[in-house]
Amino acid sequence: MSLKANTVSDIRRTYLEQCGAMIAYSIESGIKLDELVISSLDSSFTGGEEEELSLKTLAQIHNYLVDAIHPMTPQSIQIRHQERFGRTWLSRLTLIRKLMYFAIACLLSLVLISLSSQVNGDPKNFNLFANSGMSLLLNELFLVTSAGLGASFSALFRANRFVERGTYDPSYETSYWLHVILGIVAGTILGMLVPIEEIEKLVEGTNETHVSSLNGLGKPLLAIAGGFSAQLVYKALLKIVKFLESLLDTLIPNAYVPKPKAKVRDRDIVKAPLSLVTDLIAQPTQNPSEPQPSPTGQNYTQIGRKSSQDQFVRDLISLGEGCRDTVYQDSLGIPTIGIGCNLQEKANQELIKSMGIDCDALIRGDLSLTDTQINEVFSVQLKQCEEKIVDLFSSFESLSPLRQAILIDMIFNLGPGRLAKFKKFRQAVESHDFKAAAKEMKNSRWFYQVGQRGQRDVYIMEHDTLQGAPFTEGLSYGEDIRQVV
Predict the structure, then answer these.
(1) I need a surface site. Which of 272, 410, 464, 481 has the fewest CB within 10 A?
(2) pLDDT digit string (tens) for 257-315?
(3) Are 252 and 372 in contact (CB under 8 A)?
């Protein structure tokens, strides 16, 4: 058999395995699937002749099922399916299995080392200057294994969370091991250098030297805590460095001159101001001073306003997405940062890397974004949404500013691919039947996934006003956005 034939056979087998796993998951989760899709795959699963369906047909069925199980991924569903029916001890996932072995090894090492009489919990035994030789080595190894136990527990907890939510991606395996290594280093530093016995003296108000350092568990607990959260140690060291910098500036003025930040690659989008949809307000007309007609018979005109349309759209999206400078898991378990920036999207990863930022470190939680960086990422995303929304709605320019803002909020949250599938909704907007458009929004799975955001967007789409709209705290609206004339 030729190499090409083997490749095609492998692709077909992968399609069928993932389709089978996704169908099984859909049945268990109560997701309704089209009967025609199931029946079309029936011959491939039962007839023994995989050639009955072409690759094109399999690809179409696969794409349909991917949309049905979103936000879970086919690979994660297949892994869960194999985990359920496999017989491999511990786990079929290589990363999970290795982390389990590592955690067990750390636990056994911790127990064995603790059997030595030289490891008795005395804080002096962990002191680099008060102890030496084999005694110091054993106590240091005790801290290292404690840190390793905390780090492996943290990594397993993170991995298990993604596996349960169906968003686990094996391509991030390296980041988990980096997380473990950083945890071991951080835990060892914390256990060896933090004088827990002195802290106990301050708390108990005594200068006696017989303080037992939490019955000998103080140092190991610090090591485990540091291993579990390397970011905690990183932030502590960062604050110490900033304190020393400020102290140096005070003692020796102008002695410390920070290096200028590297300039972002010269790109049009970075040069542009942080205007999100300023052009969306102005309607095409020969005389800008004249009011612009709307499809409903009302005329909208721009007036002096305390909050511009672009700021209103930013506030609207921020209210739905939130704004954080460090990575967090959204309601669907997707790593997110800034204002709704999905870090699983390859385009967003490339954007962040082009700004000179370590995307992997962001995902691990070891880095945070500055306000300027958040604004730059958000500006690029909004410009992309502004460009793509016009392709989906030919009548976009004729809509009122509020309804334009709602459409931009939806494409920002859903992405152009998923919003394009709202066919009845798009038809209703194009025909300016906003009551029907609001109804179609309510009938979508998106409406129930986004909660308050969906209720707010539906109301504004139907009524074209924020007055009486639910969950609009913090949004500036009124005569500052539009004026009916």
Answers:
(1) 272
(2) 444 444 433 333 333 333 433 443 333 444 433 434 443 344 333 333 334 567 888 88
(3) no
Q: Where in the chain is the domain with CATH 1.10.530.40?
A: 278-463
What pTM was computed for the model?
A: 0.42
Let me know if 339 is exposed, middle or buried by CB neighbors in 10 A (0-12, 13-18, 19+): buried
Sole residue written with tokens 């949250």:
413
Measure the CA–CA gap between 334 and 13, rounded to whole angstroms.
Answer: 28
CA 141-147-148 angle, to 5 degrees, is: 90
Lookup: tokens for 112: 């064995």
Please state, in angstroms and rounded to a whole number, the distance separating the CA atoms of residues 412 and 430: 19
34-52: pLDDT as tens digits: 777 777 666 555 554 444 5
In whole angstroms, give the CA distance from residue 213 to residue 123: 7
The CA distance from 458 to 466, in Å, is: 11
Q: What is the token pair recorded at 316?
A: 């609207």
Counting beta carbons within 10 angstroms of the beta carbon of residue 254, is it exposed (0 to 12), middle (13 to 18) or buried (19 or more)?
exposed
**Residue 374, Cα to own-chain centre: how many angstroms?**
14
CATH topology of domain 278-463: Lysozyme (1.10.530)
**Token digits of residue 195:** 């004088």
CA distances from 331 to 159, 334, 344, 402 (A): 17, 8, 14, 26
Q: Is 67 exposed, middle or buried, given 0-12, 13-18 or 19+ CB atoms closer than 10 A? A: exposed
Asked if 168 and 162 count as a contact pair (C-beta separation under 8 A), the reply is yes
Q: CA 393, CA 426: separation in Å to the nearest integer?
A: 7
Q: Which amino acid, 268?
A: D
SS3 percent helix, strand, coil of the chain, rounded to 5, is: 65, 5, 35
